[in-house]
Specification:
37% strand; alpha+beta; Outer Surface Protein A, domain 3; 180 residues; four-stranded antiparallel sheet; 2 helices; 20% helix; 2 domains
């Protein structure tokens, strides 16, 4: 039995979950998410708790069991509290600012880079610490947006300049050996 798959998903009072076969729709104060899961897993709801079970112990169904439960839990957590990824900008003259709902990055190019958020994503910028927060209710979209922002100027290994995740460690390289 999957350790993650057998854990129940507790539904908060502010979240509404509708199950139609393998199609799950979750609605909460932050937004609404829906997903159709592959056949082979059964999703049941009773007394504010969702449980996921599989139809057999074949390898594919065992894999789907834990993944389905994790995706449903991410949907419930996302529409109730939301997700955030924090990026840090390092480098002399590198900075970020908000223009309307867009994120404007000044990261060493000859022009500022403007990032438009997709639906359900918002940005927060702290100019003192040079941190950018990517906020949203869809965990996959938040992670993808943070990865796209990081890809604009990834951190380089010599001086550590660039955009990195807050908890990311940059492997530093020594420069030229002849330099004193």
């Amino acid at each position: 039995m999957s350790r993650i798959g057998r854990m129940p998903v507790v539904i908060p009072a502010t979240v509404d979950v509708q199950i139609d076969g393998s199609h799950v729709r979750v609605k909460g104060p932050k937004g609404e998410l829906e997903h159709t899961f592959p056949p082979g897993v059964e999703i049941t709801k009773d007394d504010g708790v969702l449980s996921v079970s599989r139809i057999s112990d074949e390898r594919t169904y065992r894999a789907l069991h834990g993944m389905t439960r994790a995706l449903i839990n991410n949907m419930v957590v996302g529409v109730s509290t939301g997700f955030e990824k924090v990026l840090e900008i390092n480098g002399v003259g590198y900075r970020a600012e908000i223009s309307g709902s867009n994120l404007v990055l000044h990261v060493g190019y000859s022009h500022p880079v403007v990032v438009e958020p997709p639906e359900g994503i918002s940005f927060e910028v702290d100019p003192r610490t040079r941190q950018v927060k990517v906020l949203g209710y869809n965990k996959e979209a938040v992670g993808q947006m943070a990865a796209d922002i990081r890809k604009i100027r990834p951190p380089e290994p010599y001086k550590g300049k660039g955009i990195k995740y807050l908890d990311e460690k940059i492997r530093r390289k020594a420069g030229k050996t002849g330099k004193v």
